[in-house]
């Protein structure tokens, strides 16, 4: 057992097999369907979200994990005398890290560090894996948290999105942008920069063709990319679309690990169906 416990929030979108192997605990955020609150990855999934939208034409909303959620998550390890590193979704997007900091004050006898990933989805997951590897090497909580904070700028997280409807209804793009992109058949690339999501390139055409070009563009400078791992993370994409992205990554013959994973309910709530990302880290 590692002396430092690594905990992340549910938006890191790490598959269960990786979480189990690396001994990573998860604190879920919340998805709100009307007046009902559900825990991300616990009692709601993508299908439930999209069914809700199809029936009501209302997109879900999301909320941060509460202070009490973090007290409950930290408590068992703090009482064992174990130090903790929590890595959470960008503080520009959620109050999750702030609530974790407030909860950490309840356990003055141990070191609890909160690292703001400045990212989302598998962009967080990449940092969580690095933290778990450092914990396995016997690093201290302070050393791990400081290193993870220094590495946030190395993460490259982006997605192509089939429709802007969900981003528009979540207040993350204008009605004009949404209508224009949907009318012209544009598939925008959304990237995380400085802790926030923002539009970059626009692709045109069917999603399968767009994904192939997007994946090639994302991997155009392999020499600067950390070869350890890459994530193909997606939200209700047809399997042929996912395979197109995977084929592009495999053809590069560069990565030691290629992870094919669904994004969680919080990310799906904001990006909608037909979303796919290629996420990796740059070399240090």
The CATH topology of the largest domain: Hypothetical Protein Tm841, Chain: A,domain 3
Total strands: 14
The helix-and-strand class reads alpha/beta
The outline comes out as globular
CATH class of the largest domain: Alpha Beta
Cα radius of gyration in angstroms: 19 Å
Structure description:
- This protein is an alpha/beta fold and 284 residues long.
- It folds into 2 domains: 4-29 and 64-151, Dihydroxyacetone kinase, domain 1 (Rossmann fold), CATH 3.40.50; 157-281, 2-Layer Sandwich (Hypothetical Protein Tm841, Chain: A,domain 3), CATH 3.30.1180.10.
- It is 40% helix and 26% strand.
- Strands 8, 9, 10, 11, 12, 13 and 14 form a 7-stranded mixed sheet that branches. Strands 2-1-6-7 form a 4-stranded parallel sheet, with helices on both faces. It has a 3-stranded antiparallel sheet with strand order 4-3-5, with helices on one face.
- Helix 3 packs across helix 4 (96-104) and helix 5 packs antiparallel against helix 6.
- The relative contact order is 0.16.
Structure in a nutshell:
40% of the residues lie in helices and 26% in strands.
Structural descriptors:
284 residues; alpha/beta; Rossmann fold; Hypothetical Protein Tm841, Chain: A,domain 3; 11 helices; 14 strands
Task: Give the topology, please.
Layout: E1 4-9, H1 16-22, E2 24-27, E3 30-33, E4 36-39, H2 46-56, E5 61-63, H3 67-79, E6 83-88, H4 96-104, E7 112-116, H5 122-136, H6 141-151, E8 155-156, E9 158-161, H7 165-169, H8 175-184, E10 186-193, E11 196-204, H9 207-218, E12 229-235, H10 239-252, E13 257-262, H11 265-271, E14 275-281
Parallel strand pairs: 1-2, 1-6, 6-7, 12-13
Antiparallel strand pairs: 3-4, 3-5, 8-14, 9-10, 9-14, 10-11, 12-14
Helix pairs in contact: 3-4, 5-6, 9-10
């Amino acid at each position: 057992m590692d002396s430092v416990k690594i905990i992340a929030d549910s938006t890191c979108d790490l598959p269960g097999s990786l979480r189990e192997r690396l001994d990573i605990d998860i604190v879920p955020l919340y998805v709100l369907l009307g007046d009902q609150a559900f825990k991300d990855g616990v009692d709601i999934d993508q299908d439930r979200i999209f069914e809700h939208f199809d029936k009501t034409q209302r997109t879900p909303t999301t909320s941060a994990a509460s202070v009490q959620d973090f007290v409950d998550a930290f408590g068992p390890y703090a009482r064992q005398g174990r130090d903790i590193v929590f890595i959470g979704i960008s503080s520009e997007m959620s109050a999750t890290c702030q609530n974790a900091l407030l909860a950490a004050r309840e356990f003055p006898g141990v070191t609890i560090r909160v690292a703001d990933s400045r990212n989302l989805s598998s962009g967080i997951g990449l940092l969580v894996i690095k933290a778990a590897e450092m914990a396995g090497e016997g690093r201290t909580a302070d050393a791990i948290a400081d290193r993870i904070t220094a590495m946030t700028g190395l993460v490259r997280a982006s997605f192509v999105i089939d429709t802007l409807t969900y981003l528009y209804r979540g207040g993350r793009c204008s009605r004009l942008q949404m209508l224009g992109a949907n009318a012209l058949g544009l598939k925008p690339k959304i990237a995380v920069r400085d802790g926030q999501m923002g539009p970059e390139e626009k692709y045109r055409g069917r999603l399968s063709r767009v994904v192939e070009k997007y994946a090639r563009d994302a991997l155009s400078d392999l020499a600067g990319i950390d070869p350890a791992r890459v994530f193909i993370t997606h939200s209700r994409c047809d399997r042929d679309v996912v395979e197109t992205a995977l084929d592009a990554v495999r053809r590069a013959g560069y990565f030691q690990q290629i992870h094919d994973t669904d994004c969680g309910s919080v990310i799906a709530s904001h990006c909608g169906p037909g979303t796919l990302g290629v996420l990796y880290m740059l070399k240090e």
